[in-house]
Amino acid sequence: MAEGRVTGVGRTDAEPPRTRWSSRRRGSLPGFGLSLGFTLLYLSLIVLIPLAGLVWKSASLSGAELVKAVLSPRALAAYRLSFGAAAIAAAVNVVFGLILAWVLTRYRFPGRQILDALVDLPFALPTAVAGIALTTIYSENGWLGRFLEPHGIKVAFAPPGVVVAMIFVGLPFVVRTVQPVLLDLDAHMEEAAATMGASRLYTLRTVILPAVMPAASTGFALAYARAVGEYGSVVFISGNMPMKTEIVPLLIITKLEQFDYAGATAIALVMLLASFALLFVINVLQTRIKR
Amino acid sequence: MKDPAWLRWSLIGLAVAFLGLFVAMPVISVFVEAFRNGAGAYFDAIKEPDTIAAIKLTLLTAGISVPLNVVFGIAASWLIAKYRFPGKSMLLTLIDLPFSVSPVISGLIFVLLLGARGIFGPFLEAHDWHVIFAPAGIILATTFITFPFVAREVLPIMQELGSDEEEQALTLGARGWQILFRVTLPKVRWGILYGVILCNARAMGEFGAVSVVSGHIRGQTNTIPLQVEIMYNEYNFSGAFAVASILTILALVTLVARKIIELRIRTHKA
Amino acid sequence: MRLGKLTSIVFGALFGVASLAGAAHAQVKLLNVSYDPTRELYTDVNKAFAQQWQQKTGQTVTINQSHGGSGKQARSVIDGLEADVVTLGLAYDIDAIAEKSGRLPKDWQKRLPDNSTPYTSTIVFVVRKGNPKGIKDWDDLVKPGVGVILPNPKTSGGARWAYLAAWGYALQKNGGDQAKAKDYVTRLYKNVPVLDSGARGSTTTFAQRGVGQVLVSWENEAYLLVNELGKDKFEIVNPSVSILAEPPVAVVDHNVDKHGTRAAAEAYLKFLYSSEGQTIAAKNHYRPRDTSVAGGLAFPKIKLFTIDQVFGGWQKAQATHFADGGVFDQIYQPGS
To answer: Is the pTM of this model over 0.90?
Structure first.
């Protein structure tokens, strides 16, 4: 098991090794029917049928109503915020994720294991706890907020607060996808380049970065997907002003509470499709890495 | 060939600063705020009946969702790792789906399906089965949210370790279940353990989805994260952070456990 | 087929276990689905009522509470949250339950005295001690640099009352000119930095997070805030005119008949009108209908108008202002 990696989607091209015991059909081991049946049943009950319900409910809207709900100015502003802030947060996570991964795999220093363990905290900490903690820190009278506000830097209840919360939730993704790649990276290649007179920077550009880029892209996509849909950590710090600091999940809930079920499900569907697309991209990127 | 010391230390410094700002500070603030009114208030908040009820419901929820997802995770990993069949990558995408769906939407879909005006609403009502706004709904939503965790951890290991031992056992006359329990599961036990830990942490800490399906009935349908929100909304800020600290401690324990597992694996391999 | 049966047994067992988790041992259980600011009120009411019911009938009654934004709670009841009674922030939300789920009759409001509203409240301002911005009345809220904290009218009952109070004030000031009233309310919301989904969230934002200079809130919330979080930190400013906010209560017929709790539920609501109930309301800073009880008159005299007088009732107000595309949405159009 690679050190500290967050698992991505399992490899699709790995097959059981052919020995003289494997049969021509699916594989020789018993239990295909049972495991397939159970997997599909559980998947359907817990995932597919509920999601189908969402599609079914949105279908009750006429085309024009659907468009109006999904493309209203308020919804567009919410998409801009959710998708835009997530992009910024994921980008920040790529930069610092690369630094973190590098530092954790290449250097030895006291406290390294603690640092490594801390990276996973956003994964383990409940979102609501993160939400109120971040709000406490960045609001006007908060630990950091009291220094930032007088300089006109508003974090809590403004878009930067949303970005901060999204950085938090996406933090582990880049680090954990890049770490295994850096570990696997053949140190010999770098040494060879060095003995041939290449500068460190050159080695960085031509050897290390290209090797790491696919993993970093996957990490970006994962962090992005997580940040876009995040509710608990963002909703406390975001301010929830329509057209300004309202994230898409909150818009969905607000519509629900106004009894506008159809509108809520329409927007939820948009987010779902975006998630699908992102997942697809992630899958493609990961297959690329395996090659 | 090593990087120059100045570079090393500046990068390490940057990394530490980044983690310190975004990870360590929120965690520390939870404990500082929790103890702001002293240790007495801290334990009072935790001993409150509503908090105890929330802890019980959280444990019940995790106690059902996690084992269910473990069984599923093993079944799905076995299926995908050991056989060839068309549609594998579609299946994998579907398994991963809850991971990228917003928690709010996760809650919403269950309300749409099982609420009074939902597709199965009348059916449930006729049998007087309380799902939404009752513990069962919370368990369902939590199971959905944490669905992929175990599968994602176990599958890559199963794939990496291959099926040689299993096929040898087959030739020696072992039956399916024996192969599973005696050969495969021991091989992937660390993956299962890690998956369980992650699944559990997420199950106990889920907020968005549970908030939508819960009904917020005090002492009955509030989990620990919802209880945190309630106390926060009653001006009991240190109390809210006190209850939040329970889950924070759990999160820290999760991290430590993971580290230990990881170091164990490395010594096993070495 | 066998797999299907197995599945239903498993699920049945799971539901069974799960519902056991919620089972209590008391003889009668009521669920009171309420709006945000009534947490403290119903803690007191429930204790007193349980005692009285025990003495009268020998039965133990347990009352479970759920709190949240009024609109949000109504939505939950429509979706199946089995409330025995609803005690929400405005009549429109209970109307919505009646209309969309049919669980109580459409003329529910006539069944109890005073429009089914045992206590009333109004909308006032809370400012920081010393009133640094010199807030005296509604006009001061639209001055530049004044941060006003209000919840979201789409989800919070208190926010809708506040919006209508502001509108009503502007109408009065401008001799009934709707356009000028809209202009005032638009400028008001420009000064709002955070929209929480419920009254309690707004109070927290103002009091704990230190955001904004003036909180526009339910009167009872204002008093609760000042008493709980420090008379030395906040003070209440009463505007010249405000709205009479009537948070109604109702029994949810379909649910009480299903649970067999009608007698207890109706007695519970009647209790709110009794002198003991009215005293508890006054103690929690709600204006009791019966002003002869202790503390019944300890409320500042503010000129109050009703929603019927100025807006023609909730149905009209909701349709005009708070529905999709209504005035509140228009205020938030880009470029405004």
So the answer is: no
